[in-house]
Amino acid sequence: MNDPTNRPIQVVIRDRGLERERALVFFRVLLLIPHLAWLALWGIVIVLGLPVLWVAALATGTAPVGMRRFYTAYVRYYARVWAYGTYATDVFPQFDTKADYPVDIEIAPADRQSRWSILFRLFLFLPPWLLSLALAGGNVSIGTITRSGDSSLDSGVSGGIGVLTVIWFLGWFACMAKGRMPQGMRDLAVYAIGYAAQVWGYLFLLTARFPDSTPALSRPLPQPPHPVRAELEDDLRRTRLTVLFRALLFLPHLVWLVLWGIAVCFAVIANWFVTLIAGRSPAALHRFLAAYVRYYAHVSAFVSLVANPFPGFVGAVDSYPFIVRIDPRERQNRWITGFRVILAIPMILLSSAISAAATIALVGAWIFSLIMGRVPRGLRDLNAFNVRYTAQYWSYLLLLTDRYPYSGPTLETASVDDAVMPDPPASSSAWGAPSPLEPPTWPGVSEWLPPRAPDPTDR
After folding, report:
1. 82 and 177: one domain?
2. Residue 424 belongs to a domain
3. How far apart are CA 370 and CA 243, in angstroms?
4. CA 281, chain centre distance (Å)
5. Residue 434 belongs to what H/E stretch?
6. Do 142 and 79 sit in the same domain of this protein?
7. 299 plus 198 within the same structural domain
8. What is the distance of C-alpha 227 from the center of its chain?
9. Where does a domain end: 369, 397, 425?
């Protein structure tokens, strides 16, 4: 992946704490009201100043210092309100953006920009704006108070339920039940906020760099390995002919997925009963279902332009550039097995939102690949993240593992502590956090529970 620290507009996490005060979470919407009102008033000035900013930048090749400072403050404040509203932090944001904040936006100094880029900036801004809408979710009118504090240029445009909206909903229940924010959802929210900041900074001429959608964060928290992991070996080159006819090439795989899926339905029912009784899935069923998950991931990677070669039909290990590694069967918690479908509901909601954003990324990747013969790295990596999350999603549903899918914006690492439901017995602790009402201190970290030892009887 790209180094996320090289972006001219970069989101940073200064506070690694995940604990949340339940009282502050319960009244979060009420606490947001003054910030939403201020965002609305500020947004009116933002809209009125845009023509002046555009003309001045077109004449000089850079934004005026005063206006740049004004728009920079707006982007940082906008991100802080989002972070507070989606429980990425528990610290109440100040109206003055000069003070540090646990989730903040760093913007590189001004540089000269191409006048052609400035002239067509509004047109160039539209594709990343659509992706930002899918990540944020429909709050798109500057000057209109919204639940999550987002704002935009056209009050006549609205979007659906985006990733941040789902995190806002699920995060409330997670924080109220556990007193802490699941790290995967927190990091995914920070990624979406950071991308939105890049999009608005690009529109406001704070940078000439096109927004980078690579799902990665700087200084991420350490993660223990997940039983289902993904790797990607790809050089970004795409064959235009196969890109053009990608949907037709998918048809034989679609037929085979349906036929294989029928057998999977019977296999997962048998797997559920055996796992509930014996505490782990039978070796034969585990191999069969794992091959299906790998095959599904290979086909998904091919369709979404994450990889270029035509995939095989058997889901063999290491047979495709998008590599899915699934650990051998291990003992699973019977309570988690018994209530697997109910526990999967938050995962289903979040997966749907991520897939919606990935669909927009796919459209952009398809058009770009057809023209240039290569796929943009950011769009490819966003789709790769979606395929990885989907592979863990199906592995959880098919009882290949009782580890919840990790929703953090990474490809290869995963957390065992990302469920909205109460943690299973083998889940881990996470970083502690200072109270938002007390002076901040260095967060402590609890030790991760050791991984389960492999069963010598498992062959």
Report:
1. yes
2. no
3. 6
4. 30
5. none
6. yes
7. no
8. 20
9. 397
Indicate the DSSP class of residue 159. -
For 234-246, give the DSSP string.
--SB--HHHHHTH
Segments forming the whole domain that contains residue 380: 228-397
* Domain shared by 236 and 194, yes or no: no
Chain-centroid distance, C-alpha 308? 23
- The model's pLDDT over 49-102, given as tens digits with 9 standing for 90+, comes to 999 999 999 999 899 999 999 999 999 999 999 999 999 999 999 988 888 899
43 and 168 belong to one structural domain:
yes
List own/partner pairs for 151-157 with CB under 8 A and 24 or more apart. 151/39, 151/40, 151/43, 151/46, 151/78, 153/47, 153/50
Give tens-digit pLDDT for 280-295: 999 999 999 999 999 9
Token pair, residue 187, equals 């990091």
Q: Which helix (H) or strand (E) holds 11?
A: strand 9-13
In this structure, the answer to whether residues 75 and 168 fall within a common structural domain is yes
Place of tokens 């760099």: 209
**First vs last C-alpha separation in the chain:** 35
pTM as predicted: 0.82
User: What is the maximum span of the chain, computed from C-alpha positions, in angstroms?
Assistant: 74
The count of structural domains within the chain is 2
Beta bridge mates, 105: 11
Query: 């914006």: which residue's tokens?
Result: 409
Is residue 232 situated within a structural domain? yes
Q: Are residues 39 and 172 in the same domain?
A: yes
Residue 445 lies in a domain: no
Residue 419 has pLDDT above 50, yes or no: no
User: How would residue 400 be classed by pLDDT, with cut points 50, 70 and 90?
Assistant: very high
Q: By the 8 A CB rule, do 125 and 202 touch?
A: yes
Residue 114, by phi and psi: left (phi above 0), alpha (psi -120 to 50) or beta?
Answer: beta
- Tell me the three state secondary structure of residue 154: coil
Spatial separation of the C-alpha atoms in residues 319 and 313, rounded to whole Å: 10
What whole-number distance in Å separates Cα of residue 126 and Cα of residue 304? 21
The answer to whether residue 118 sits within a structural domain is yes
What is the SS3 assignment for 174?
helix
Domain end residue (candidates: 378, 397, 416): 397
> Of 282, 318, 107, 99, which Cα lies nearest the Cα of 194?
107
Whole-number Å distance between alpha carbons of 83 and 60: 34
Strand partners, 153: 141
In terms of domains, do 253 and 360 share one? Answer: yes
Distance, in Å, from the CA atom of 378 to the CA atom of 4, rounded to the nearest integer, reads 11
C-beta separation of 165 from 135 below 8 A: no
| Backbone region of residue 175 per phi and psi (left: phi > 0; alpha: psi in -120 to 50; beta: other values) | alpha
CA distance 385 to 390: 9
pLDDT tens column, 243-299:
999 999 999 999 999 999 999 999 999 999 999 999 999 999 999 999 999 999 999
